[in-house]
Amino acid sequence: MDVYIEPLPRGQWGPIDGYALEFADGSKFAENIFRSELLAISEIVLRGYKPLLAKVRITDKHANAHWKRPDTSR
Predict the structure, then answer these.
(1) Residue 40 burial by CB count (10 A; 0-12/13-18/19+): exposed, middle or buried?
(2) So where are the chain's domains?
(3) Tens of pLDDT along 17-66?
(4) Strands, E, within the chain: which ranges?
(5) Residue 44: enclosing H or E segment and its boundaries?
(6) Residues 6+ apart with CB under 8 A from 38
(7) Is the pLDDT of residue 15 over 60?
(8) Coil, strand or helix at 28
(9) CB atoms < 10 A from the CB of 41, how many?
(10) pTM (2 decimals)?
(11) 26: which DSSP letter?
C-alpha cells in the first residue's frame, strides 16, 4: 500500500517546514510531522509500506505525474 509524503505547509509559497504522511484517501498515516524526506521514507519503509514523494508543491494524489518512488536502496 502506498503512503504519500506531502510537503507542509500546503501550497507554493514559503519554505517547506516538514512532511506529513497520508494514505490515498487523505487519512493520516502518522500524526508526526517529519523534518526531512529521508526520515519520512525510513518510517514508511519500517512499517512495511511503499513511499511516494511529491514532485510538485501543490499535489493531487490522483495525478501520477505528481509522485515518484524514492530510491530506498541506501
Answers:
(1) buried
(2) 2-68
(3) 999 999 999 999 999 999 999 999 999 999 999 999 999 989 999 999 99
(4) 2-8, 18-22, 50-54, 67-68
(5) helix 37-46
(6) none
(7) yes
(8) strand
(9) 22
(10) 0.89
(11) S
